[in-house]
Structures are given as structure tokens and as C-alpha cells.
Design a protein that fits this description.
Blueprint: H1 4-12, E1 19-25, E2 35-39, H2 40-58, E3 65-69, H3 75-87, E4 90-92, E5 101-104, H4 110-114, E6 117-120, E7 139-140, H5 141-144, E8 163-167, E9 170-173, E10 188-191, H6 196-208, E11 212-217, H7 226-230, E12 235-236
Parallel strand pairs: 1-11, 3-4, 3-5, 4-8, 5-6, 6-7, 10-11, 10-12
Antiparallel strand pairs: 1-2, 8-9
């Protein structure tokens, strides 16, 4: 099976202007009503910038443990996972004391005190800085990520048997993290699950069949929700 980085590269090389990910926020709060559309090319750029931040800023490499404490489904969860996999890191979705890098919306959580490096993520699509004080040494993603390069070359490659994902205690290797391709080619897939591991698997599956995902955070939309037809959804994960 291909690696996540190989799947992303193949996707971006084919009709790069087509959507890769569309996100709707239906949750109560300041981002309610937000719609974000990310093309294949732009997704590659986000992934490259985050991967460069990991590799150049934090010396991440194959085996580095990157803990993603981000909501699901969310477009920022997707590109941070793809970035970590591009570097060859191990992504963990399980709470972990002493992670090498913690990517989180809550940099003041106890988990952050034990991580070697912390990235503070602001969920709003147009955010330019984290809305609050940050301790010295914490990376403000909204303010700093744009300074990293738009293309990425890994310094090293993971081995097929290296762990790519840790989820509910299960370790999934780079050989096995991209699921088998059972969806129709080019599928436009509705993703609403709140389990980060399920969401990332669904994103990889859609990418592997050269498809795309429509994420709705805040619960599954009604069957007659006009957004589903407008977005061309033809499969529910």
C-alpha cells in the first residue's frame, strides 16, 4: 500500500485545483457557520508548511511522536496528520505524557506541560494569532506557520513497519495506515465522525481513490440538507 505522503503527492498531481477537503462548522461558538474549501494544491501547501515546521523547527524525524489534540472532524486535524506522516513521524491520538510534539487547541492543558514542543492551534480559518497569552517557546501556528516553505523534502523516510498511527492503544504501521480502496474513484465523501482516528482513515481512503471529503462538525446533517447536493456528496462514510 502507498504511504500517506505518496497518496497526497498523487492527488495533488492530478487536477490540482479540484477540492480535496470542504469543511462546515455547525458547532455553537464563534466559528459556527464557517465554510472552508481547500483544493488539492492548497492542501499540499498547508501540509508542506506544517511538515517544514516539524522538521526544521522541532527536528522531527521518523520515530518522533506527534500528539494531535485537535477536534474531529476538522480540516486542521487532516493537514497536521498528513504533515507528520510526510516527515515520517508517529501520530498519536491517545493522550501521551512526554510527547515529542503536541499540536493542540489548549496549550495550557496539563498534557502540554509534559511535551517537549507545543504548537498552539487556533481553529478559525482566518485567525492570524492565538487568542490569548502563550508561554515562551510555544509555537503560535496562526502567526508562524506562514513563514515556512510551500514545498517539502523529508530528510529521512520511515520504514514500512514503523508506526504511523497510534489510536486507542493500537499501533498501525506505515505499510497499513492507508486503507484498501473500496470506494468509487473520485467519490465525494461526507465525514461527520467525532473519532479522530476514524476521520483520518476516511480522509486517507478518499484521497487514495482520488476523491474528496466534506466534513461537517456538529453532528450529521439531515438527509435533505441542501449543502449535500450543493457539494456533490455521493457517499456517506
Amino acid at each position: 500500500m502507498p504511504t500517506p505522503a505518496e497518496v497526497l503527492a498523487a492527488l495533488a498531481a492530478e487536477e490540482s485545483a479540484r477540492p480535496a477537503l470542504t469543511y462546515y462548522d455547525d458547532t455553537p461558538g464563534p466559528t459556527r457557520g464557517e465554510r472552508i474549501e481547500v483544493s488539492r494544491r492548497v492542501l499540499g501547501t498547508w501540509v508542506a508548511k506544517a511538515a517544514n515546521a516539524l522538521q526544521e523547527g522541532f527536528d522531527a524525524e521518523p520515530g518522533t511522536l506527534v500528539r494531535l489534540a485537535l477536534p474531529a472532524p476538522h480540516w486542521r486535524l487532516a493537514y497536521w496528520a498528513l504533515a507528520a506522516w510526510s516527515v515520517g513521524c508517529t501520530v498519536t491520538l491517545d493522550p501521551h505524557e512526554g510527547a515529542d510534539v503536541l499540536v493542540t487547541t489548549d496549550p495550557d492543558a496539563p498534557e502540554a506541560e509534559d511535551a517537549d514542543e507545543v504548537v498552539a492551534v487556533t481553529l478559525a480559518g482566518l485567525a492570524r494569532e492565538f487568542p490569548g497569552m502563550l508561554r515562551t517557546g510555544i509555537m503560535d501556528e496562526a502567526h508562524e506557520l506562514a513563514s515556512y516553505g510551500d514545498s517539502f523534502e523529508p530528510w529521512d523516510e520511515p520504514e514500512p513497519e514503523d508506526p504511523a498511527l497510534v489510536h486507542h492503544g493500537r499501533r498501525i504501521s506505515y505499510r497499513d495506515v492507508v486503507p484498501g480502496q473500496t470506494w468509487p474513484r473520485g467519490a465525494r465523501v461526507l465525514v461527520t465522525d467525532t473519532d479522530s482516528g476514524v476521520v483520518l482513515t476516511q480522509v486517507l481512503h478518499a484521497m487514495a481513490v482520488r476523491g474528496s471529503v466534506v466534513m461537517v462538525r456538529g453532528g450529521p446533517p439531515a438527509a435533505d440538507d441542501p449543502r449535500l447536493a450543493e457539494e456533490g456528496v455521493d457517499l456517506t462514510a
